[in-house]
Amino acid sequence: MSRRYTTRFGRRSVSYLVHRSFRVGGKVRHETILNLSARPGGAIETVRGTGPAPRR
Hints:
Elements: E1 2-8, E2 11-24, E3 27-35, H1 41-50
Antiparallel strand pairs: 1-2, 2-3
């Protein structure tokens, strides 16, 4: 999970995203799996507490 900050028009907002990275033809691509920004803080902490998926 990553936390991204965006500043526009003097306002700062934060987004919580669950994403994965992978390679296609030698280039790194990123895919957003889940956007948790609109969820309550408890849900974000629950997902954060689960940790990363095991590598294959």
